[in-house]
Predict the 3D structure of the following.
Amino acid sequence: MNPRRFLWPRVAPEPAIEPDTVTALSAKLDAGMQQRLGRSVAILHLDAGDCGGCEIELRAVRSAVYDLQRFGIRFVVSPRQADVLLVTGPVTYNLVAALEQAHAAMPEPKMVVALGDCAVDGGVFKGGYAVAGGAGTTVPVDLLIGGCPPAPERIVAGLRALLEANARRK
């Protein structure tokens, strides 16, 4: 027997993302954003102590496949410019004050998204000595996007749902 057969098993490639799915999600997201804010959406990403899995998926969302910037969704570095606070990771005790300050510095209307199982309820780190819990223990959360880590399609669909729900509430 060939020893390489066991060392490097053949892995079936993942199915390609349907371009129509991405286009449809992006169009709905753009329509919801315009109804809610009447302008582009600025997202502030706050890493509250995560492992890095959600950041990899966020990078994929910002890639050329989804290209959210063409629909007016951009990531910013200042809470004063942000409309959406995107929290990843379990909120550790040393980042509770930073999360509260970022939320307080954001202008109204502001929305908070907890991205990933860790940000929802602490995930696999729940009950740890350094973990305060999910993002909801510190700031009011408008949307929970579960998954460890959530797929880019789920992130885009979640943002679309958040903007559509807020447009209906308005």
About this structure: Residues 19 and 65 are 8 Å apart (CA to CA).
